[in-house]
Amino acid sequence: MYVCKGYAAQSADTPLAPFSFERRDPGPTDVQIDILYCGVCHSDIHTARSEWGPSMYPVVPGHEIVGRVAAVGREVRKFKPGDLAGVGCLVDSCRRCPSCREGLEQYCENGFTGTYGTPDLKLPGKPTFGGYSKSIVVEEAFVLRIPENLPLAGVAPLDPVRWMSALDGRPFRVEETLFTAVTPDAARQRLLAALPPDAVEVEYKTQQDYVRDASTGGKILDWLQQQLASRMPQPAR
Fold first, then answer.
1. What pLDDT, on a 0 to 100 scale, did the predictor assign at position 13?
2. The model's pTM
3. Domain count, the chain
4. 194-229: b or e for each residue (b if 16 or more CB lie within 10 Å)?
5. CATH code, 93
């Protein structure tokens, strides 16, 4: 265990304030990240204020994390010290249920572990603590690689732009590439250039548009229907 410094809300009606707590030392499959930037999401505020049901206090928010790898466990293969890395809103799941085996850990049938504010299965009796802190330790499977040529301050405050791969005999995938509302055009183009050559960008003008579309399938279903229709055999004339 090591001492980490961050900012926490101690109750629903107290402001964020400096807070020291313990992080676990990296295990065999863990990645320890020194946090450089963390975005601020509305969910951080709602959780700190216990507006989405009872919160586990103290709350150290933050699930839009970018930093550099400080240490890795002996079984880690995808990261090494010095690499740029990111962490989203999940840090673990059972990885055994049908949803997890399909890569849908957010639907883990045994309950996923959120980046903050959920029971920490590695430290029983304590909540997980998020990115409003100096560092974080996360299972390799839930750590994202960040390209070196991206502006890190623009990578952390995440604003989704969805893209979808083509259906040419390959599994259909929906992914999210993340931008801020103020990401410079040049940086945005570098981010887009990192996508697969067959990617199709679906962009949202406002966060409200994205949230509404994400809940209904909207543009994604429209695009999928178009792709399927274009591949359907046409009736003979």
1. 93
2. 0.67
3. 2
4. eeeeebeebebeeeeebeebeeeeebeeebeeeeee
5. 3.90.180.10
